[in-house]
Amino acid sequence: MVRGSTIRTILALAVMQGWSLRQVDINNTFLNGELFEEIYMEQPPGFEVSNGTGQKLVCRLNKALYGLCQAPRVSAGAYLLLMVYVDDIVLIGNSGRYIGDVGMLLSLKKYVTELLQKAGMIEVATTPTPIVSTPKLVTSNNSPHFPDVHLYRSVVGMLQYVCITRPDLSFCVNKLSQYMNVPSNTHWRAVKQVLWYLVGTLDHGLYFLKGQPELVCYSDADWASSMDDRRSTSRYVVYIGSNPVAWCLKKQSLVSRSSAEAEYRSLANCASELLWIK
User: Residue 253: which region, alpha, beta or left (left: phi > 0; alpha: psi -120 to 50)?
Assistant: First the structure.
């Protein structure tokens, strides 16, 4: 499965380099190559045409055909980058018009609207933040269990997908995803806080700008932040130019015995992602 950071990296490069972007289904690739030589072929059977004297004519090729030795070269004359997932393809290259003079916006507005409709949160008041500092989310508390576990899991799962273009939701969705097994009413209240925030930020997304493709990354960790097991949470974000293309928030697998240890674990994850993108 294609990674979200792969998609964002490719799209960021397309914007910053002024490359065109197309989503295509490739068919008969070699037939699209432009020929630089004069090449002739016999007419195919059943389509023969003669001149006025009965002399059989030949065809001059305008484009390449399968079997020509130069067909692979002329069909690959442009600089192309491909992302392929099953039968879906996104293509960028150095030919064609610019995507735009300024940049490109990646947004899941339609999907977020469907999510809000599913949760019955279309006509509600908005909130300026996606999460509140209190109460702290824990596995066991005095709050009753939320009765519709399927709804909780479905909404949080959709929120995970929204994070593809909304890094501002990553922290709160990471927290909510830790209580899929037995969510409480307190956890559902936190989910609604995120949905209220989405109502007022439907048009938000990732805006990719042109610029130099310089790799910059930041990492951080909060030491022993989990109230359940005192494990730390690692986080990082990777930029190409001014465009965020990869980010992650993840609870560490082991308990860090100092804030420095927690930071080093987070930095190691960030370095791995950075090396992969590079």
Answer: alpha
pTM: predicted TM-score of the whole model, two decimal places: 0.67
- Cα–Cα distance measured from residue 184 to residue 89, given in angstroms and rounded to the nearest whole number: 41
Q: What is the DSSP secondary-structure string of 133-192?
A: SSSPP-SS-SSPBPS-HHHHHHHHHHHHHHTTT-GGGHHHHHHHGGG-SS-BHHHHHHHH
- 185-198 confidence digits (pLDDT tens): 999 999 999 999 99
Rounded-to-integer distance, Cα 269 and Cα 247, Å:
10
Residue 263: what pLDDT?
94
DSSP string covering 79-142: -EEEEEETTEEEEEESSS--S-SSEEEE--HHHHHHHHHHHT-SSS---S-S--SSSPP-SS-S
Quick one: how many helices (H) and strands (E) in the chain?
Answer: 7, 10
Return d(Cα 253, Cα 80) in angstroms, integer.
39
Residue type, 182: V
Q: How many CB atoms lie under 10 A from the CB of residue 77?
A: 11
Is residue 180 within 8 A of residue 166, CB to CB? The reply is no
| Distance, CA of 126 to CA of 117 (rounded, Å) | 15
The DSSP bridge pattern shows strands 80-85 and 88-93 to be: antiparallel
Q: Which of 121-135, 148-162, 196-210 has the lowest average pLDDT?
A: 121-135
Pair 212, 13: CB distance under 8 Å: no
Per-domain boundaries in the chain:
19-50+59-97, 108-199, 206-277
CA distance linking residue 41 with residue 39, whole number of Å: 7
